[in-house]
Amino acid sequence: MAIDSDNENVAADRVFLRQRKVRFADLGEVFFARLLLNLVTEPLVERTVTVRLDLASLFPSRTVEDVLTRTCSREFTYSDRLTEDMVDFMKNALGMQVKAKEITTTVLAHYTEEIELRLSYLRDGDGIVLPKIIESFDSPGPGTRNPNLLQQ
Predict the structure, then answer these.
(1) What is the structure's pLDDT at 19?
(2) Contact by Cβ (8 Å): 28, 105
(3) In tens digits, what is the pLDDT along the chain, a chain of 152 residues?
(4) DSSP-assigned letter for residue 75
(5) DSSP E strands: which ranges in 23-146?
(6) Whole-number Å distance between alpha carbons of 62 and 80
(7) Distance between CA 100 and CA 18 in Å, rounded?
(8) Burial of 135 from C-beta contacts in 10 A (0-12 / 13-18 / 19+)
(9) What is the pLDDT of residue 124?
(10) Count of CB atoms within 10 A of residue 51's CB?
(11) Phi, psi of 150 (to 5 degrees)
């Protein structure tokens, strides 16, 4: 059975568009620590290394250029899960009529901001449970078309 490449691309686009429903807030520090560890060639050797982490690391079936093209101009509106949970509580338990604040941004800016937040936790630790596990990271900031989107 031959696969129609146009139909394959349409299906891939639908899968890619559904990714915006995945909340990066659900991908915590442990996820990114494991992702970084997976990029290190000899993870058990104690030394400082530089690894490249970009959006293509999260979407391995796409090239960096493809991911940037699809995310830099596409906008969406969201509200964070904690805010939505508080709104649900206030509506259901207290009978208040409130609405979660919505933020409109590009997909690239959202992904970049969320990844930078997780990497900052890994860089700074929390002083209680999470130790400092990365020394630093570089990011060109949201909206840039630099294929080296994030670097640890």
Answers:
(1) 53
(2) no
(3) 344 455 566 666 665 655 555 577 678 888 898 999 888 888 888 888 888 888 888 888 888 888 888 888 899 888 887 888 888 888 888 988 988 888 899 988 888 888 888 899 999 988 888 888 888 888 765 444 333 333 33
(4) E
(5) 52-53, 75-78, 103-106
(6) 26
(7) 22
(8) exposed
(9) 93
(10) 17
(11) -135, 145
Tokens of 144: 């840039």
Report the C-alpha gap between 88 and 6 in whole angstroms: 42
| CB 98 within 8 Å of CB 132 | no
Q: What are phi and psi of 34, to 5 degrees?
A: -65, -40
The span from the CA of 17 to the CA of 3, in Å, is: 21
Amino acid letter at 12? Answer: A
Return the residue matching tokens 């620590």.
33
Q: What is the pLDDT of residue 59?
A: 83
Residue whose pair of structure tokens reads 């805010």 in the numeric block: 83
CA 101, 104, 107 angle in degrees (round to 5)? 130
